[in-house]
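Handout, section B. The chain below has 220 residues.
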Amino acid sequence: MKAMILAAGRGERMRPLTDRVPKPLLEVAGKPLIQYHIEALREAGFTELVVNCAHLGEQIAARLGDGRAFGVRIDYSPEPPGALETGGGIRQALPLLGAGAFVVVNGDIWTDYPYRELWREPEGLAHLVLVDNPRHHSGGDFQLSGGKVFAEGNSRLTFSGIGLYRPELFAGAPRGRFPLAPLLRIAMQAGQVTGEHYRGRWMDIGTAQRLAELDRQLRA
């Protein structure tokens, strides 16, 4: 099974840090953010990775190379300026991800989630890892009930940015820029999205302040 790390975002909220360095290469406790994902995925048995890139993407490819230095193989899915958003980025990378289910991880999170839990075929079209709502996203994203994920509900959790998908989720999706959430909501209406509530460590590294906070935590 292959895994994809989403690394094409501009990182507007991280400026000026991301004016010269792409967000996935920002360092935390002496290591680029993306390296934590690569190492965690490798330890879980995912050695064939796909990384999409757009803003300053050449720096990512230069830093990671073909992945051999990290014990993996990395294929790159370059995107045009402005990137293709999550849905469009995954859609474009499908030829690199193969015919079976695959894992996708947002490059701007940090977590100790055990990725080996996702080494399986999803029951439906997708399986999402949900987490407790952080302070900056108190309303959450989706409802989890009976192992199924729903678009609406009173006790919503936050989508962690970690998901297991079948290529069929993107059947009929056009090439180009589009978000992932609308495809997931359609699949949820059909009862085709399962989920789990992960209660371990997780952080959305969307701002320079949160980057600094994670750096302090890991160094401690």
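Note. The longest helix spans residues 85-97. Compare this with the example in section A.
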